[in-house]
Request: fold
Amino acid sequence: MKLARNWRVRLVAPLVVVALSMAVHAVDITVLPDPVLQERYDALTQELRCMQCMNNSIADSPVGLASDLRRDVKEQLIAGKTDDEIRAYMVNRYGNVILFTPPMDSSAAWVWLLPLVAVIGGLFVGIRIVRRRSKLVDTDDSAVEAEDTNR
Amino acid sequence: MNRFIVPVVVFLVVAGVLYIGVRHSPDKSTMVSALLGKPAPAFELPVLGAADRQFRSADLAGQPWVMNVWGTWCAECRVEHEALLAIARENRVPLVGLNWKDDDESALQWLAQLGNPYSVTAVDKEGRTAIDFGVYGAPETFFIDAAGLVQYRHVGAMTKEVWEREFLSRLPQRGLP
Reply:
């Protein structure tokens, strides 16, 4: 208790917590000379999958292959490649699975269409139920009236 | 009766889609190479233990060859080593080692201690050739045919069974000498 009241502890303790949490995020400390390139670098490395640890991006994976792929992204950005060219470079080597957002081609179309089908199907079922219920009310409205008068 | 048909059909369709999804989920042992049927990337790298020599993949053009990606840091590579030695003794096809992100000294020591199955080992210290081949974890073994096309990629430890089923079957049948 005495310790916590010490103002130095109060000041330093949050800083220690912040410093420790920053260490967790310091997987990639690449700094590019140009802020625009840096922005593109950050975005690209976030959308490329680390192939060794499936659900991490190469931006937040510490494994060797991820750092090699980050190096390639950085080099190609500096060499003036477009984002699409860099994505194509990765897909040519590792396949579409390296992209967290797969392109909508014939093999992946159902991934994109299934949620749409589910939503439209759900709407259809919902509308039918509502229609049926409102028809019931139309044909037999005495009960509703009776309820209304009871209020 | 009729009112149950639609939900049952929808259930079966969803179950089927999920089943296919689970079966085809990205699994380390089933991921196919993006390079299948495409030309193997050409590369030129220093030869392990002979820094003044370069290995050129172009030198093997016109014949089938096999490339095994390994490193001394890779536990599965230790597991498959006996199988690779047996394959090398068959002497059916050049077996090229790609020493991936390793240090030469450990690699040479590994080969001296366990035996060297490779006709030549290329040193890929920066991992660039491995990336060109779409390597995502050692060991991986590639079969490149006489036309220079990647015909198969095995991920994980090589075994006698995998070798016979996926690699030997892709080699042209050899007549008796």
